[in-house]
């Protein structure tokens, strides 16, 4: 078995156990393999292992992989996106996880040829270093998108603080879920907002317990070739 198959099987086991603890069905959770730090070869290996959702965070990395990988997979853009780079990615992606401002929505509205599935990125913990709207800003922001024909708000996305404090991480995920439910209850045609993109290598189990429908897993699944090379160089 390749390393990725071994990793995937462990992650699947943990995910199923976490779903059980959260009284959820694991089949409602999709794994996005975050391939931003790995080569085309390793990305292809992930696809061969059965992964169909792939995440990239740079236009260059995304477009290079799309050009050479011919598989029928879903591409998720998970990084912050500069307005001037919208035109480079918007025709190639299936999901954008980082809608965080009106100027970005306006550029998508102008450039996209069909509706784009977007997650509104929320900075639940209000860390200075993180992108995203505060919880309070989410509903008014989504209301301003009502007349947009190319933006479909499928859900909310967050990154938990990088901490060992599991209770803090859990409270961030709980707040995102509450916010998502509040939006979903509005019944907006442009914002069904049924999905929750939360959880990474270190915290996906908590995220699944708290309702994640997409987890974004990089290092624990496909590794980090940059980091691995650094180790060799030491
Ligand atoms: C890199 C990245 C991930 C994956 O992180 P890992 O800790 O390697 O699993 C998930 N989400 C976003 C937004 C990222 O930038």
Automatic annotation (TrEMBL):
Domain of life: Bacteria
Entry keywords, A to Z: Pyridoxal phosphate
Stored Pfam families: Ala_racemase_N
GO terms, molecular function: pyridoxal phosphate binding
Location of the Alanine racemase N-terminal domain: 36-224
The keyword Membrane is annotated on this UniProt entry: no
Positions where N6-(pyridoxal phosphate)lysine occurs in the chain: 36
Database matches in CDD domains: PLPDE_III_YBL036c_like
Co-factor requirement: pyridoxal 5'-phosphate
Cited Gene3D superfamilies: Alanine racemase (3.20.20.10)
Protein's UniProt keywords contain Transport: no
Family under the similarity heading: Belongs to the pyridoxal phosphate-binding protein YggS/PROSC family.
NCBIfam families with a match to the protein in the record: YggS family pyridoxal phosphate-dependent enzyme
Function statement: Pyridoxal 5'-phosphate (PLP)-binding protein, which is involved in PLP homeostasis.
The name this protein goes by in its record: Pyridoxal phosphate homeostasis protein
